Amino acid sequence: MKKYIITGPPGSGKSSIMFSGEMDYGYHVVREVAEDYIKKRQAAGIKEPWTEANFQERILEIQVQRESRIPVDAGIVWLDRGIPDGLAYVKEGAGLYDRIIDEFKKSDQIMPYERTCFLIMPLKAVETNEVRRENYDEAIAIGNNLEGIYKKLGFEVIKIDAGKPFDLEGRVRQIVDVVGKNY
User: What integer pLDDT is reported at residue 182 of this predicted model?
Assistant: First the structure.
């Protein structure tokens, strides 16, 4: 199994890339937890679940659960965000920060991550909605933070730009070209 993290700020197009990886290339995909969890809580009447005290803890728990369910014979796996993404949303030195690091290390021992990850750069405009509340400037800051986090954890970070004009298939091919070389 080859487990690749595809990360990036909200509104960068990760979900479209993941869909293409699954449908067009047959890769095993682990969907983004935060978006699913937010939608579930909103359906239960919680308008802004990200304000709940245990929000990031729940995201971590579900992410760990989803990663633990990856079949060992899955082949190439694309993770729409990895456990370390949670570090971008908590303060360094906080108990949850340390717990995220610990969970990442445990997961990495059980089913190691490939040490190349892909940072999907935001599109020129980030659409905010009921699930995605960050604007373009915030998305850029989150992307920069994610890049630093993954580099600090020893990953090679490959940036995937939107392309001019925007080119979804070109973005996907950049990733496929790299993972194909390692498979």
Answer: 63
